[in-house]
Each structure stands twice: as structure tokens, then as C-alpha cells.
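Researcher: Next sequence.
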Amino acid sequence: MYSVLIFLIGIFTLASAFTIFHQNDGKVAFPYKKAGLTERQAAAHLLSRFTYGATPGQIDEVVKTGIEKWFMQQLDGSLPDDSLNGLLNKYDALKLSNKDIVAQYPKNAVLLRMAVKDGVLNKDSVKTDRKEYRDALDNYRKLHGLSTEQELLRQLFSQKVLCAAYSKNQLHEVLTDFWFNHFNVSLTKNQSAQFIVSYERDAIRPNVTGNFSDLLLATAKSPAMLYYLDNFSSVGSNDQTDKKLMRNVAMQKPAKQNAGLNENYAREVMELHTLGVDGGYTQQDVTEAARILTGWTVYPMGAYGNGGAVEKLVERIGEDKLPQRGFVHEGDFLFTPNRHDNGEKTVLGKHFPANGGYNDGLKLLQMLAHHPSTAKFITKKLAVRFVSDNPPPSLLAKMEKTFNRSNGNIREVLITMVSAPEFWSSASLREKTKSPFELAISSVRALNAEIDQPYQLYNWANKMGQRIYAYQAPTGFPDKAQYWINSSALLTRMNFGLALASGRIPGLKIDLAALNYNREPESAEAALSVYSKIIMPERDLSATIKQLTPMLSQTDLAQKVAAAAAKATPADSVNNSMIPGDDNSKKHKTGQVSTLKNNPMLAQVVGIIIGSPEFQRR
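Model: Next structure:
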């Protein structure tokens, strides 16, 4: 097992040394020919950057469409996705409002209060007989037609996999992932979990190519973000306050949450969402911004959500009279004037007069969205994601200029990026390293896999070190190669490739022979040559084939790699038991799905290719 690890590290190091960067990309009169690329190489580069990986024959499709036209279609994101929508229809939670999700998928604590109130459970039984308590709670849930939060999260994970694997609007899927990661919220913050479906669907996805300011405002007002960074509980101090209203509004706070000014969101909206850590703000700016954002909270959702008193208060005032009282109720967002700090403030040198209320929050976010530091920070982050870990300053200057000129229009920034020679240069080709999720999805796309149990791929991404929707820090997952590649990661990635190709992942169907028009290679060496070109088209693979050939003769390779990988623990897989959704995953960890009786020799060859360092590149 140790020898296998040494071998993998060796070939990855060797592959890194070769830096065989001469490949593909494209957009709107794209200058790829000046970089020495053919149209097919340019198409392959585009697919590596703006999709979750090319499917068999997709390079031909892009060339036939025209690489610039294909990219503009991807920016529009309006290609019909009927097949994908058919797969998603069985996930009912994806279409529910936050209020309906809270009602249909209540947390156990909420369900317990409901059961106690209805006389089904006694509080003392929780302490005396845990099994009886759990059984009674499950029966109560089933009796009322309710579902578990684990089932909600399973649907969330499954749709993520299916959209990434099957959507024809691949760029929008990649951008949805990018912006979610930028405006990160996490399942590890228990209060946020129920609202992540809506957060991605309503705040992130519709705005991925629009104006950055719209995306910033949508995330700021989402319950997922308001809970994740605690702004929902941030309260200003005023001399004249309606104490009764304050008590009623405060009832939506969870227990043990102290009322008062909370600076978490104000700090992160500057450091991580807009200006960047070197954006020129001070601690005083953070405090002043937090004061401006006091009163930005979540509208109560149901009597069992600890917000019934506020809901009744709003009903008593009357929805039509809320603006007259200074309230703002938009969907799940609620601005409560009696929690707002009405004093004057100054942020980044801009004076906000007293009694600005909700509008001051809008002005603050607009100011941050259009600040020069934001243009610099956001465009660099886009370039790191789509170009290289260290994008050239000349490219960053072009993108920054477009951001400032276009009112922060993401679409225009992306067009500028792809139209630049730097995007097509040899220093940018295959320079990025796939994250575990990207590896999992690009693998099934490259092999034309049929996904019957999408949750299995979520589990494998987790095993390889990336728990989607559960990165605890507000920074989101790092987007640098060194974060993803280490000795244990190499083992688990090779283990994934071998498991996928040999049919050891339940719920996935792969016909390896069909990828080569049912022509079976005569030897393992021939299979390596043929399938490397199928899976990694438009690349110079001579060095890769030479590096992988010694692995073809290793007996029991899959067993050795699996045993070695079992001893390795990717950093991000620690403490997964703390995250909702693990209970149900046990139901699908066993069993084997036939991959249409693939040749064992061919399965090992394809597994080696998927786990190879070259396939990790994009």
C-alpha cells in the first residue's frame, strides 16, 4: 500500500514538472489562434473552464456551433433542460418556499414542541427513554405527513449533482457554484440549513451573470445569510424605543442568543463579499456598517418558529400600513425599525444622517458594490477561478476596468476575460486543479454515466475532502491547487476512479465499451492509449501514458489503493457526523451496481486514467 502511495506521488510530481500546457479555450472573436491553438483545442479549453467537464463528442458540437456562439449561449443560460427537469421533478422540496420548507421539514426541536403541545409526548420521556422518545417522534411526524431535515438535505445534495452532471446550461451551474462559495453559508450553522434550498435557488442562481450589486443585495436579505452571520439578531440602541415591540420582535431569536449589536455580517460583507481584506476599511467602518444594518432580520415563519408574536403584530398593524411605521416586509425579509440604530453613521468616509432606516442599508450595500476595491477583489477572484491560480496583472486590469465601466456587470466582465490573450496563453491551459466535486462530476460526464443515485457522488466528493454546502468558514472553499492535492487526496482520488470504472459505486451505470464504439482494445497498453484520448481529448498524452503504464501490471491494484485510502482522512471530512444528513446516507453505502459487465482489464485502465494527475487538471 505504501508503495502505491509513493508511486502516485511520484507520477503527480513528474506530471507537474512537465507543465504540458498547450490546449483549449474560446469567446467573441477569441484570440486563440495567436496562442497557437487549433479550434478544437480552443473548444476543449472552453469546456474545461466553463463546464463540469466535456462529455464524449462535445468538442465536435462546440466546434460545429462555433466557439464564440457557444460561449454566448452559455452566458444566456436559456438552453432547454427538459431531461434534467424531469429528473428534478421528484424532489418536491426544490419548489417550496422557505415557509413551506420550515413547515414540511421541521427540526426535531420544533417537532418536539409540537408533539408536547398536542399531548403526544411528555417532556420527561425525552430524558428517561430515548428510544421510546425517538419512536414516538417519528410516529408523530408520519401521522402529520411531515419529513425530516435529513430528507430535505438529501434532495439538496442530489439536485446539485444532477444539475452539474446533466444541465445543458453548464456555465450557469459553474457560476452558481462559484457565487455560492463566494457568498458562503453552511449547513454547520444549524439555523441556516433549512433555508439553503431557497438561498441557492432565489438569491444566487438568478443573478449569476447580472450586476454584482443585485447579487450582493439578494444574499444580504436571504434568511440563510441573515442567520449564518447572525445579522438577524443585531439590535441597535436608541433612547426612545417601543419596549413591547422590542420584546415581541426579539421572540424570534433562538435561545441563548444575546441581543445587541452584532458585527459578523458587516465584517464579512466588507472583507469577503466586496472590498477584500486589503480594501481600505477599518474596524470603525465595520462597527458603523453593523449599526446601519441593525433591524435587518427574518420574517417569522409559522407559530412553531418562535415568531408567531411578530407575525400577529404585523397582521395587527396591517401589511399596507407597514411602510408608514417604517417596516419593510419583502418575502422572507423583514426590516424592523425599532431594532434599528437611528443615529448618524460614517462608513468609508461617507456620512449617513440620522433616521435613514432601511434605505441606509441599501445605500451602504450599493456603495460597497461599486467601490474600486470591490472591482479589484471580485475580478481577481473570477480570474483565479476561470484562468489560473495566479492570473497575470494585465488581465486583471482589463477585467477591473470592465467591472467599473459596466456597473459591475458579471456577464461583461466574463466576456472581457475570455476575449483577452491572457486567457488563451500557455500559462493558463490546464493550470487549474479540480476540486473533489469537480472531479466526481467530470468523471461521470467523461464516461457518459447514468446516475440513478446522485447522493452517491455527493458521498464520494465528501470522502475526497469536499463536503458541499458545509464549509464552515464564511470564506468558502479555497480555490488553489495546494488546498486539494496532498498524499491522502491522491489516494482517495485514485480510489474513486477505480471504484467508478469497476462498478463499485451503487446507482451509477457505465458502458465503457460503448465509449469506443464497442471495439475492445487488444491489450491493457492499447486500452490506455485509446481511452486516454477519449477521456482527455485534445491533449499531448505521451508523457501521461508513459507515467501510467507501470500501473497496468500491478495486481490487485484496486484493493491496494482502497486499503491505503481507507487509512487516509481528507482534512474536510473531519467531524462530518455533526452535519445533518448523515443518517440516511448509511442506507446507500452497500451494494454494487453492474456497469454492464465491463471488462475487468478495461475497468482498471479507465480507473487509472480517472485517478491520474493529468485528469485532475482542467
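Model: The mean pLDDT is 88. The CA atoms of residues 512 and 599 lie 8 Å apart.
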